[in-house]
TrEMBL record:
<dbReference type="Pfam" id="PF09948">
    <property type="entry name" value="PpoB2"/>
</dbReference>
<keyword id="KW-0812">Transmembrane</keyword>
<dbReference type="InterPro" id="IPR018688">
    <property type="entry name" value="PpoB2-like"/>
</dbReference>
<feature type="transmembrane region" description="Helical">
    <location>
        <begin position="20"/>
        <end position="42"/>
    </location>
</feature>
<keyword id="KW-1133">Transmembrane helix</keyword>
<feature type="transmembrane region" description="Helical">
    <location>
        <begin position="202"/>
        <end position="232"/>
    </location>
</feature>
<feature type="transmembrane region" description="Helical">
    <location>
        <begin position="104"/>
        <end position="129"/>
    </location>
</feature>
<protein>
    <submittedName>
        <fullName>DUF2182 domain-containing protein</fullName>
    </submittedName>
</protein>
<feature type="transmembrane region" description="Helical">
    <location>
        <begin position="62"/>
        <end position="92"/>
    </location>
</feature>
<keyword id="KW-0472">Membrane</keyword>
<feature type="transmembrane region" description="Helical">
    <location>
        <begin position="244"/>
        <end position="262"/>
    </location>
</feature>
<feature type="transmembrane region" description="Helical">
    <location>
        <begin position="149"/>
        <end position="167"/>
    </location>
</feature>
Amino acid sequence: MTGETMISRAGVKFTPARLALVLGGPVALALVSWIYLGLMIGDMSLIPGMAQMMMPGQMFSPAPLFGLFVMWAVMMAAMMLPTAMPMIIAYARMQAVDRSRGAGWMPVFMFSGGYVLAWAAFSLAAAVLQAGLTHLALMSPMMMKAGSGPLAGGILIVAGLYQFTPLKQACLRLCRSPLSFLMTEWREGNPGALTMGWRHGLFCIGCCWALMGLLFVAGVMNTLWIIAIALYVLIEKIVPGSQWLTRLTGAAMIAAGVWMATA
């Protein structure tokens, strides 16, 4: 094997050049999301409806709700799309035979789009939750974080306990095993690819939703925590035998939550 790393399925060669091409769309979307997220963190006035968020009783107005949704959707695309790359690459390998028959690259883009769409649905729920907590004066509209120790502690405790649940472990196993997911969830064509991406996104949400709750504690626009959570999710997905890390993190969050709730 020379400088090229060949990935093959049924004798179809998958060169690094083809791999770069198929990942072009997801990588570009992730980069654009990170850039826009960075701009919003640097200047929160770029979040649609931000001015109205500062006014009492306006959180459920269309502009603030839309702004929160955009903020969360961009943030989730930036954080989670890179962690889905192992699954997207595995899907691209499985598509190699169909591409040799002229199927093209569109199914891979559709798979990625379905994944992003699932996290966009999560973003809508997160935006409504943040609007509700802010409306009840439990979150600061400017700092975008829980304003009381008991609330922050409760969020940490819930997130920590979820790390030990069977649902967390089941979803994490599917995220760690791309081949197992693809073999059981395979669907043909572009609509099938979109559905598969959507379903993978749902499993990923089942694995990570509680971790996103940490942003309500540290600050939704806290750069360090955004990066830290994204890296942690990636480690959970790709490091073999990282169950100990999941449990250790859960125990640490529970302990920190109890301390914050009672301090």
